[in-house]
């Protein structure tokens, strides 16, 4: 996982593509290009000889450059960083700042890629990718790009419920002073708690619980575990927010029903 700070000071968490995923995508693209080259050469050979040998050599070299350089550059420019292999593997090439690539980025990657992928049989690209944390090949280093994963598995839903032992306390507690920033940190902790070590989880839960307890009146029972208190706090806050939104929606529907009944509806039709 890598972080990118935008011009608006927003931190974006991006997941670079792994070396294996990039390798498979490159192999798919190479198979497509080689198949297109074979079909083109067969079609060219079937044509009647209308030019001499020197001109034929120039045409063949031009066809090779179009297939190995022009085609990848055109596809990545029009698709904003996706080729067939990257599309199948759920990858996209972006700039180092997370933005979409342009023609110059695709051109640099295509020209250097012709050298490191085809002339060097991928050896240079593999060596560069293995020594880079973002699995960049040489063309990415020069162009200032890298490949990231677009299809990231969705996290499982976080099901929070107020424990039965805390329902009476939760129904009476004043939690209106809990700021949104603290609630977001608590919710993020609850989402990641299962992936944390027990010592780190207990320490962070204790810190968050101590920070939230001073803003809640009355505080939770003394024997309440920190993680249970945080889960009950988030669940009760969600329930109250949902109830508030339902009441607000009911009032809006009541006002709308009054506005669209007589005599307001008649005046609306006359307008």
Describe this structure in words.
The chain has helices spanning 19-46, 53-78, 84-89, 103-119, 123-130, 138-143, 167-172, 180-192, 198-213, 226-259, 264-270; strands at residues 2-5, 11-14, 91-95, 145-149. It has 271 residues and is mainly alpha-helical. It folds into two domains: 2-149, no CATH class; 164-269, no CATH class. The longest helix has 34 residues, at 226-259. 22% of the residues are buried.
Counting DSSP E segments of at least 2 residues, the number of strands comes to: 4
| Large-scale geometry | elongated
Number of helices: 11
Report the end-to-end length measured between terminal Cα atoms: 58 Å
Please give the largest β-sheet.
2 strands, antiparallel
Q: What structural class do the secondary elements suggest?
A: mainly alpha
| Series of H and E elements | EEHHHEHHHEHHHHH
Radius of gyration: 30 Å
Mean pLDDT: 84
Q: Regions with pLDDT < 50 over 5+ consecutive residues?
A: 5-11
Strands side by side in the biggest sheet? 1-2
Overall number of domains: 2
The gist of it:
This protein has helices spanning 19-46, 53-78, 84-89, 103-119, 123-130, 138-143, 167-172, 180-192, 198-213, 226-259, 264-270, and strands at residues 2-5, 11-14, 91-95, 145-149. By secondary structure, it is mainly α.
């Amino acid at each position: 996982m890598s972080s990118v700070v935008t011009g608006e000071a927003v931190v974006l968490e991006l997941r670079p593509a792994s070396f294996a995923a990039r390798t498979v995508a490159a192999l798919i693209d190479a198979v497509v290009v080689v198949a297109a080259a074979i079909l083109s050469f067969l079609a060219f050979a079937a044509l009647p000889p209308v030019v001499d040998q020197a001109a034929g050599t120039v045409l063949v070299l031009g066809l090779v450059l179009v297939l190995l350089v022009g085609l990848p550059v055109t596809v990545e420019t029009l698709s904003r960083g996706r080729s067939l292999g990257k599309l199948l593997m759920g990858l996209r090439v972006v700039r180092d700042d997370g933005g979409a690539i342009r023609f110059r980025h695709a051109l640099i990657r295509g020209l250097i890629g012709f050298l490191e992928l085809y002339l060097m049989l991928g050896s240079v690209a593999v060596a560069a990718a293995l020594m880079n944390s973002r699995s960049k090949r040489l063309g990415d280093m020069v162009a200032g790009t890298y490949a990231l994963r677009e299809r990231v598995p969705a996290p499982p839903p976080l099901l929070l419920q107020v424990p039965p032992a805390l329902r009476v306390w939760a129904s009476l507690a004043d939690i209106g002073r809990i700021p949104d920033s603290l609630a977001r940190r608590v919710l993020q902790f609850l989402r990641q708690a299962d992936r944390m070590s027990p010592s780190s989880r207990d320490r962070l839960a204790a810190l968050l619980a101590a920070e939230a307890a001073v803003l809640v009146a009355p505080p939770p029972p003394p024997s309440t575990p920190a993680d249970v208190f945080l889960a009950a706090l988030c669940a009760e806050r969600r329930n109250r927010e949902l109830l508030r939104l339902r009441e607000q929606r009911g009032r809006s529907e009541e006002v709308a029903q009054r506005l669209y009944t007589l005599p307001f509806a008649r005046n609306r039709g006359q307008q």
